[in-house]
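Following up on my earlier thread - several people asked me to post the actual chain instead of describing it. Fair enough. Here it is, all 793 residues.
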Amino acid sequence: MNEKALKSLEYYKIIQLLTEKASSPLGKELCRDLLPSVDLVQIQLMQAQTRDALSRLFQKGSISFGSVKDVRGSLKRLEIGSTLGIIELLSICSLLENTSRVKAYSRNERGDHPADSLDEMFEQLSPLTPLSAEIRRCILSEDEISDSASPGLLKVRRSMKIANDRIHTQLTSLVNGGARNYLQDAVITMRNGRYCIPVKAEYKGQVPGMIHDQSSTGSTLFIEPMAIVKLNNDIRELELQEQKEIEAVLAELSNQTAAYTDQIRDDLEIMVQLDFIFARASLAMDMNGTEPIFNTEHKIRLKQARHPLIPRKKAVPIDLRLGDDFDLLVVTGPNTGGKTVSLKTAGLLTLMGQAGLHIPAMDRSQLSVFHQVYADIGDEQSIEQSLSTFSSHMTNVVSFLKEADSDSLVLFDELGAGTDPTEGAALAISILSYLHEKGIRTMATTHYSELKVYALSTPGVENACCEFNVETLRPTYRLLIGVPGKSNAFAISSKLGLPDFIIEKAKQQISEQDESFEDVLTSLENSRVTIENERAQIEAYKEQIEALKKQLETKQERLDERRDKILKNANEEAKRILAETKEYADQTMKLFHKFQKDHVDTAAVEKERQNIRARMDKADNALSIKAAPKEPKKKLSAKDLSLGDMVRILSMNLTGTISSRPDSKGFLFVQTGIIRSKVHISDLELVDEPVISSSALQKTGAGKIRMSKSSSVSTEINLLGKTVDEAIAILDKYLDDAYLAHLSKVRVVHGKGTGALRKGVHDYLRRNKRVASYRLGEFGEGDAGVTIVEFKK
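Reply from S.P.:
Thanks for posting it. Predicted structure:
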């Protein structure tokens, strides 16, 4: 990739941010070496890895891969039979322990989630827990081997302790006994690894032994008494034995480790790769980045894109297109209006996407693979430019024209500036025409009106501008494609206090053609503002219509459920009554045959007949009670009904108001809540509207009025902009209402952001007894910015 473009577009600043996210030295090295790729398969794989790692970070939280040291040198030494030192073994042990922790993170996080691009890497990790546990058991620190590392080492150290105790006993008796007067201090010290006592120089003959050292003044001699010479010799021998035992322990640990060199090497490579991948995901989380969609048609479609090096709260998102119906975009507008930032945003996001990094833009933004990106961007904002500056820029342009092809993206900032405006504009048009004829995707910023006219009159070339508010003298930084920009020099100067007569004289210097062109631009700008306002109103109306549509669908579903329940209950009751009737009929026939056979008198038969008739009348009354609501108390005619009358729809058992007059067939419309139903006049009966007195209201109180939750609860709640505590309080009440309204599932909008609000919401949902399950939204549902909640049935 073009090195100059990487520097001009500040790609290496992004790499620096990425490097800070890695936790291991080798992972940081991979981050520093990351360059944009031109292999579409490789790019898509890296983007998928970044996406899957980001999903895990949202689900489980952050993960550290520790300070994974490069142990490849130690592994090579093991392969040739060398013994590793304590530090080398501890480095391998630390790698294995980190591997075990990372593998556990994967197991805990996966659950029932579908497989992703990182599963294979996690599964290939081999923690080798027995080996790391054995190393940790034998080696306590970089300076200490455990006594229990081997039986021989334990025995030697016990012997050393006994010898030390004997020496201290004898020296203590000397210090506190007859030699006390000959000592400089009543202490026991060591010189050259042997125990000594400090004797005054004038009494050296009174304490027989070996002199090992003397003080700087010569007044004190450090003498090893003859009585402990043998014990000191024994300790030195034991120290040599201890060192041999330690070497044996390290040799044994090295032999055990040598059996797993391949697995350890694979663990190291995978851990470094995972560190690299999760660093990309962590950067995407910080930038609120999304995965771009790559195409092979050299099309760029950025939605709400932000420059990643500008703070999120200050950056103004832009929509940018290139390669659809035009391959050359000319961006105009006033200074400091955002032209250069728009140019850099397009180039930098292209480089980031090809490097496998997510970009700070909305979902479904598109990028293409460019083999080269050429950028001539001058950061100098001075209006006085020297000839050398023009020459430098033109040198870059010459190199671009030689090397650029249809697989290239070319970016020019202030093309043709720094020289005579007429010649500069002509050069700029000629250069852009050449690139346009070759089909090379190009963006250029300029102040030249000639380039605006060129873009308006040339097919495949489009104008764009950075919006500027003349009233406030502030740019809005919005990129408007299809509208040429104005420099607004006169308006800005007038607002800043330049005298009107100077401005008028300046206007006289402009040709009539240029003035006419500027008037056209002004008219276009006014039309654009009007269209933008109307579009905003239309969007608001669409949102209202969509909300009403959802409410209507929800209401209809509840009505269908209620109707099905009523029909089900009615059928069951009818079956029960029919079964009872059949039972009575069978019993009647049995009694008839019995009376006929037994020659019972007529009076007894008549009495039994009356009993059975009474039982059947009772069943008939029960059936009549069920069917009664379907018959109106009074048959209504068109004269009995007026618009606004309160009626009950008998077949649906719903109350509503008359909203139309009956037609010739007796059908009319009744408004029930938000539903307008067409029913027949025979299915209606008038309902007397209750008169609510003020005293009744005072007795009941507003707090006792109950409304149907099913007609007021939305299937979605928006928590954006709330703190965790505020959001949980609102969510708690909303879930209660939704549960009482018998909603099966709801949608909680919390956004992506830092993840704190999402984590707080998930912690609350995990504890809520009414929640059966919850999950992040899928593609089309809001992705990680939305949680779908399902209630228990």
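The first helix runs from residue 3 to 8. That should answer part of your original question.
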